[in-house]
Design brief:
The protein is α/β, with parallel strands linked by helices and about 120 residues long. Helix content is about 20%, strand content about 35%. It has a single domain, classed as 2,3-Dihydroxybiphenyl 1,2-Dioxygenase, domain 1. A hairpin with a 7-residue loop joins strand 6 (about 90-95) and strand 7.
Protein backbone atom coordinates (compact mmCIF):
# COMPACT_ATOMS: atom_id res chain seq x y z
CA UNK A 1 0.00 0.00 0.00
CA UNK A 2 1.31 3.47 -0.90
CA UNK A 3 1.88 5.63 2.17
CA UNK A 4 3.32 8.78 0.66
CA UNK A 5 5.50 10.41 -1.96
CA UNK A 6 9.25 9.89 -1.57
CA UNK A 7 10.45 11.93 -4.56
CA UNK A 8 9.63 12.84 -8.12
CA UNK A 9 11.99 12.61 -11.05
CA UNK A 10 12.31 14.92 -14.01
CA UNK A 11 14.37 14.00 -17.05
CA UNK A 12 16.95 16.08 -18.84
CA UNK A 13 19.35 15.49 -21.71
CA UNK A 14 23.05 14.94 -20.97
CA UNK A 15 25.00 18.16 -20.50
CA UNK A 16 22.05 20.31 -19.39
CA UNK A 17 22.62 20.02 -15.63
CA UNK A 18 23.95 23.59 -15.25
CA UNK A 19 20.97 25.14 -17.06
CA UNK A 20 18.56 23.05 -15.00
CA UNK A 21 20.34 23.95 -11.72
CA UNK A 22 20.16 27.65 -12.63
CA UNK A 23 16.44 27.34 -13.31
CA UNK A 24 15.32 25.09 -10.46
CA UNK A 25 17.75 26.19 -7.75
CA UNK A 26 18.38 29.76 -8.92
CA UNK A 27 14.97 30.92 -10.14
CA UNK A 28 12.58 28.55 -8.37
CA UNK A 29 14.54 28.39 -5.11
CA UNK A 30 15.04 24.64 -4.69
CA UNK A 31 17.99 23.57 -2.57
CA UNK A 32 20.48 21.18 -4.13
CA UNK A 33 21.18 18.14 -1.95
CA UNK A 34 23.98 15.61 -2.16
CA UNK A 35 23.36 12.77 -4.55
CA UNK A 36 24.59 9.40 -3.24
CA UNK A 37 28.14 8.68 -4.45
CA UNK A 38 26.94 5.38 -5.99
CA UNK A 39 24.67 7.33 -8.38
CA UNK A 40 26.87 10.32 -9.25
CA UNK A 41 28.34 8.71 -12.38
CA UNK A 42 24.87 8.75 -13.98
CA UNK A 43 24.85 12.55 -14.18
CA UNK A 44 21.99 14.74 -13.09
CA UNK A 45 21.49 16.11 -9.60
CA UNK A 46 19.07 16.10 -6.70
CA UNK A 47 17.26 19.01 -5.05
CA UNK A 48 14.50 19.55 -2.54
CA UNK A 49 11.58 21.84 -1.83
CA UNK A 50 10.78 21.44 1.85
CA UNK A 51 10.41 17.70 2.41
CA UNK A 52 9.90 16.88 -1.29
CA UNK A 53 12.97 15.59 -3.11
CA UNK A 54 13.22 16.12 -6.84
CA UNK A 55 15.70 13.99 -8.78
CA UNK A 56 16.90 15.32 -12.10
CA UNK A 57 18.04 12.34 -14.14
CA UNK A 58 19.87 12.18 -17.45
CA UNK A 59 17.89 10.33 -20.12
CA UNK A 60 19.79 9.39 -23.28
CA UNK A 61 16.51 9.25 -25.23
CA UNK A 62 15.21 12.51 -23.74
CA UNK A 63 11.93 13.99 -24.90
CA UNK A 64 10.43 16.82 -22.83
CA UNK A 65 7.29 16.07 -20.85
CA UNK A 66 4.83 18.50 -22.43
CA UNK A 67 1.63 17.14 -20.87
CA UNK A 68 2.63 15.23 -17.71
CA UNK A 69 3.96 17.70 -15.15
CA UNK A 70 4.53 18.43 -11.48
CA UNK A 71 2.39 21.09 -9.83
CA UNK A 72 4.37 23.14 -7.33
CA UNK A 73 2.78 25.40 -4.69
CA UNK A 74 4.39 28.83 -4.49
CA UNK A 75 4.31 31.39 -1.65
CA UNK A 76 4.44 34.48 -3.94
CA UNK A 77 3.24 33.46 -7.37
CA UNK A 78 3.23 36.97 -8.88
CA UNK A 79 6.84 37.52 -7.82
CA UNK A 80 7.91 34.20 -9.32
CA UNK A 81 6.06 34.96 -12.58
CA UNK A 82 7.92 38.29 -12.80
CA UNK A 83 11.29 36.61 -12.16
CA UNK A 84 10.60 33.98 -14.80
CA UNK A 85 9.54 36.64 -17.31
CA UNK A 86 12.68 38.70 -16.64
CA UNK A 87 14.75 35.54 -17.25
CA UNK A 88 13.00 34.94 -20.60
CA UNK A 89 10.65 32.12 -19.57
CA UNK A 90 7.04 32.28 -20.70
CA UNK A 91 4.20 32.20 -18.19
CA UNK A 92 0.82 31.00 -19.41
CA UNK A 93 -1.79 31.96 -16.83
CA UNK A 94 -4.78 29.64 -16.61
CA UNK A 95 -8.22 30.53 -15.22
CA UNK A 96 -9.96 27.24 -16.00
CA UNK A 97 -10.36 26.48 -12.28
CA UNK A 98 -11.98 29.59 -10.75
CA UNK A 99 -10.62 29.01 -7.22
CA UNK A 100 -7.05 28.22 -8.31
CA UNK A 101 -4.50 30.90 -9.21
CA UNK A 102 -1.90 29.26 -11.42
CA UNK A 103 0.25 29.41 -14.50
CA UNK A 104 2.20 27.00 -16.64
CA UNK A 105 5.77 27.37 -17.82
CA UNK A 106 8.53 25.17 -19.20
CA UNK A 107 11.98 24.49 -17.81
CA UNK A 108 15.10 25.02 -19.97
CA UNK A 109 14.73 21.61 -21.64
CA UNK A 110 11.00 21.92 -22.33
CA UNK A 111 9.42 20.00 -19.41
CA UNK A 112 6.03 21.45 -18.47
CA UNK A 113 5.52 22.84 -14.95
CA UNK A 114 2.44 24.10 -13.16
CA UNK A 115 2.95 26.78 -10.50
CA UNK A 116 0.05 27.28 -8.07
CA UNK A 117 -0.50 30.07 -5.55
CA UNK A 118 -0.30 28.91 -1.94
CA UNK A 119 -3.82 29.00 -0.49
Amino acid sequence: MITGLDHLQLALPAGKEDAMRAFYCGLLGLQEVAKPPELQSRGGFWACAGKLEIHFGVDSGFHPATKAHPGFRVADLADLAAKLGQAGHMTQWDKTLPDVIRFFTADPVGNRLELIAEA
